[in-house]
């Protein structure tokens, strides 16, 4: 299956646009590296709010985490580990060949991330019938993100973690004033 054969998906489209915005990739990867969080679930927290679904209902976020856990553990994380191992070469393999393999693994990893997002969005059966007002959506995204970190029992550090989450929410909802986002995160 080539990446062009994926079915259309609003969550993937939202994530692709958001991830490409200034600072989002760096902030998301910093949270991933610091706490082992799933970037797809960070993006999912924002998408649920942005799609008019508001905040997670009881059990929805836990169910989403459970739904992708085996995929993440058995596909995404091993691919990421392999890609990182190959970064900078993997002697005795020639550097150029190891780097070419790393790029192929990165493409496969992205393919796996896409599959994970399809799994997440398929599990969200509740329709987006809530608020489409940016301030409300941004606040709902902040609540969803806070719930995600609470479920994982991760305390947020003001200087690094909260700053990264503010970048993510501000990029997802650029019309919302930064001071409000800072208030919510």
UniProtKB/TrEMBL annotation:
The organism's place on the tree of life at top rank: Bacteria
InterPro entries: CHP02444 (IPR012659)
A Pfam family matched in the record: DUF2390
Name of the protein in question: TIGR02444 family protein
Organism: Oceanibacterium hippocampi
């Amino acid at each position: 299956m080539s990446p062009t054969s994926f079915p259309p998906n609003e969550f993937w489209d939202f994530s692709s646009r958001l991830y490409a915005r200034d600072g989002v990739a760096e902030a998301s990867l910093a949270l991933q590296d610091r706490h082992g969080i799933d970037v797809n679930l960070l993006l999912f927290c924002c998408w649920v709010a942005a799609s008019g679904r508001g905040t997670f209902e009881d059990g929805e976020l836990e169910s989403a985490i459970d739904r992708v856990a085996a995929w993440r553990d058995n596909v995404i994380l091993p691919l990421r580990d392999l890609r990182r191992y190959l970064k900078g070469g993997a002697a005795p393999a020639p550097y150029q060949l190891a780097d070419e393999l790393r790029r192929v693994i990165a493409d496969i990893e992205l393919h796996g991330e896409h599959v994970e997002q399809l799994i997440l969005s398929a599990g969200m059966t509740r329709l987006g019938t809530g608020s489409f007002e940016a301030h409300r959506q941004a606040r709902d995204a902040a609540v969803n993100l806070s719930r995600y970190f609470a479920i994982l029992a991760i305390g947020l550090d003001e200087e690094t973690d909260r700053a990264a989450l503010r970048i993510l929410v501000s990029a997802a909802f650029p019309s919302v004033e930064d001071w409000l986002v800072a208030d919510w995160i």
